[in-house]
Amino acid sequence: MAMRGVHIFTTLISFLFMLTTALAEDKKSYLARGSSVSTEDDTKTILVSPNGDFACGFYKVATNAFTFSIWFSRSSEKTVAWTANRDAPVNGKGSRLTFRKNGSLALVDYNGTVVWRSNTTATRASFAKLLDNGNLVVVDSEDQCLWRSFDSPTDTLLPLQPMTRDTKLVSASARGLPYSGLYTFFFDSNNMLSLIYNGPETSSIYWPNPFDRSWENGRTTYNSSQYGILNQEGMFLASDKLQFEASDLGDKDVMRRLTLDYDGNLRLYSLNATNGKWSVSCLAFPRVCEIHGLCGKNSFCTYMPSLQCSCLEGFEMTEPSDWSQGCRRKENITVKRDHNANDNTEQRFIFVEIPKTDFYGYDFNYTPSVTLPVCKQICLNDDGCEAFAYRKGKGECYPKALLINGKKFPDPSNEIYLKFSKVSSSQLLASKPSHICKVTEKDAYPSLQMFEGSNSKFNFGYFLSSALTLLVVEVILVTVVCWAANKWGRRPEIQDEGYTIISSQFRRFSYKELEKATEFFQEELGSGGSGAVYKGILDDNRKVAVKKLNDVIQGDQEFKSELSIIGRVYHMNLVRIWGYCAEKTHKLLVSEFVENGSLDRVLSDHLGLFPVLQWSQRYNIALGVAKGLAYLHHECLEWIVHCDVKPENILLDKDFEPKIADFGLVKLLSRGSNTHNQSKVHGTRGYIAPEWALNLPITGKADVYSYGVVLLELVKGNRVSRWVVDGEEEVEMAVKRTADVLKEKLAREDQSWLLEFVDCRLDGEFNYSQAATVLKIAVSCVEEERRRRPSMSSVVEILLSIVE
User: Fold this and answer.
1) Mean pLDDT over the full length of the chain
2) pTM (2 decimals)?
3) Where do the Protein kinase domain residues begin and end (predicted)?
């Protein structure tokens, strides 16, 4: 009888185990109405297609930011096929996907904001499931489809997914970013599938060939169905007679996708089932210089000696590392003519010839069969003429209102004549072509890691919790800080400051208040590219630093919104911001006053004006700065990238505890640039990471590079600018040379060479093990390949592991 009871018990346990397993697997096959899934769950995968080819769930685009996406499970890089919220990633802490009781599938951010929903409210929606073809659908109890992702593609079309009058593909804004870009694939008003460039100043269709009529392009406008589809064999067919095929046409077992890439090229990809890699099996533009807007305005694209973008002579990049913004004139040549005066325009302007170059479109007053002087006079007589193209032999004159879509060696060939004022022409003729950026083969045929290493900028609100959550955080914060104080020797007074500062007195000051506090900005503490800093004393006798911000063009409301969130960021190694002023043209920040000034004054002091930093102080500074950056990179959203880590922005309090200043200023000082992408070069020579010059998305790894340079300066005891050899070496090369030498020396067992490298003012009084560890970290931080650099959180762990 006992044995029988054991058998029944065992059978019951087995049954419950099987039931639990089945339910767990069932969760992957559908999402039921009334259920909810959080970004904080152990797995970010919510649904898997029955055949296992596709998965759906929270896709990580930054350290703490996610999109709700569908991706290829068998791709080695989890290539994304569809995204619901590409322009509004959600916070990784507290955001949820909810199948609401009203029938809508909704993506809700941590603060309750609905960033995306399906249009199935007040329907009989029963559950959501992912089909074998990658289509996410919401169905009722009778399996009737109420909503499907196939009807709202992002940048990718899957086999059997229809292209219609109501659908379009929009490119990503840049490699590795999910945000909407400048190119669109859609049915135009003539019923033809077209590619259009939607630039900052203009838009133009560039495919099919705009020079040719529809039948010359093999298309027809006489169709009303507006329908296109990619079949499983690799053939694309459309109602306008567009037809193209994959190079591996006929293989139904190959997984495919048609993607409008960030560079404006439409490419058909095939997946290698063995290694999970993608290959291009068909593309719209083998010659990518034909793509409009590829290099932006006032620039041209060339293939020799390699594919590259270049600014015209007399121009410079508008936004370094972002060619979509094009180039701008170094000198303003727009001089309005007085039409009532008899001035001689030929004496005021000069034309510079650019041979065998053309800019497509934006001609005005086209004139055939004229001489070159006549064409020149046409441009001189028009204030809006930037340049003119002249086709010799035929005498064709093309005055240009805008210089865009430039390319070298066009067919047929002509010359471009740029218009400059004679005032600036002497400087122009002495200058050299500027800002040449090579586009590698990888750019022409980009890899499929479309979401790799994203450093996207996201909304400031993401990293804050609600007021209710802060009450819980209070308890956790105090507990953790108390424990940390015992373990790491932090100063006990910080324990009491934590929560008080989080809910503190961040407020708006009037300009008169700050004039009074600073005695009309009398005592300047320092100045930099972002503005000058003045010492002040508030009415409550608090000492503050008041920074006048330069070049802020944001409205008061946007400025206030962004600053109010920065003001609530708290960490013992970040300078605390107390408030701000925004009155007309006055934009100021009010922050805590840090007694011992900036680290650069100590490092640059070779006259004995400041006490020499002892090794323990240097090590503590290295650790404190690492903790502050780790907080910005990992405990907040990743886009909080400082972009200007250097000794001038590391302040030392009365106990020489470091505090990082000027974090968040990149956002506040951006000149109306795309908020999703760091494009304008920020930082200081010697500390700028190589990716700024390589047109790569900027992530926290850019700060890691700058931190590595600061570490080298801390150990060496002098500034990076003093490392240059013979005055001719670039400061970036000096950093690389120093790192290469250290790599070789750190590999030795004998550490006696440290006496020669470590600051001689220490007289050999330093911890050899710590010095070697700090230098190893520094060398790894300044790696040119950012993937090889450590994260700031791992740097903190290493430094803490060897604290005496």
Assistant:
1) 79
2) 0.54
3) 519-804
